[in-house]
Design a protein that fits this description.
Helix content: under 10%
Number of helices: 1
Distance between the termini: 53 Å
Largest sheet: 5 strands, mixed
Radius of gyration: 18 Å
Strand content: over 45%
Number of strands: 16
Structural class: mainly beta
Length: 175
């Protein structure tokens, strides 16, 4: 058993609760290949009345570095209301019920319990990001959560920090 150098009274232990759950989240909405796009969630508007470029403009990893821009939203406000015009000019409206999608409050990630680093007092305290992507006639809901690992991992042939922050597709809708 080790202690945190900053606070000798904090013990680093294996995670106590598995699977990982969350009570708050951050949220971000991103629009691609639309003529207009608006997403209302948690009393905040995302999007633009201007055309959005296609995702291909940003390359194949266009979502790799995106996160939830608005944080610490308590689970769960009313559904996200999405209104947009696809690139063919067709108007669309959808209600995406984030609370229903994540009603189990499970954090979606790709880390096995035995690979996860020991945590202060064995408690996972990070909140995940929920991302909503509007891409022409498709809406995708993603989750991203930072999970610290016991050892470094190799990504594209390079050793990097000892965490995973994968983007996990949770739901997809086509209109």
């Amino acid at each position: 058993m080790s202690t945190d150098a900053a606070s000798p009274s904090v013990r680093r232990l294996p995670v106590k609760e598995w699977p990982l759950r969350f009570k708050r989240h951050s949220f971000g909405a991103y629009c691609y290949d639309t003529l207009t796009c608006s997403v209302w969630y948690a009393n905040l508007e995302h999007g633009s009345e201007e055309p959005s470029p296609p995702a291909s403009t940003y390359g194949p990893g266009y979502l790799d570095h995106l996160g939830g821009g608005h944080g610490m939203i308590r689970n769960f406000p009313p559904p996200a209301v999405v209104t947009w015009r696809s690139k063919d000019g067709q108007p669309h409206r959808a209600e995406i019920d984030i609370g229903e999608i994540f009603r189990d409050e499970l954090i979606r990630h790709n880390v096995a319990r035995e690979e996860m680093a020991d945590l202060p007092d064995g408690i996972y305290r990070n909140e995940p990001s929920i991302l909503l992507e509007v891409n022409d006639r498709t809406i995708r809901v993603w989750m991203r959560a930072m999970i610290f690992l016991k050892k470094q991992v190799e990504v594209a042939g390079v050793m990097r920090a000892d965490f995973r922050n994968d983007l996990v597709l949770v739901r997809s809708y086509t209109y």
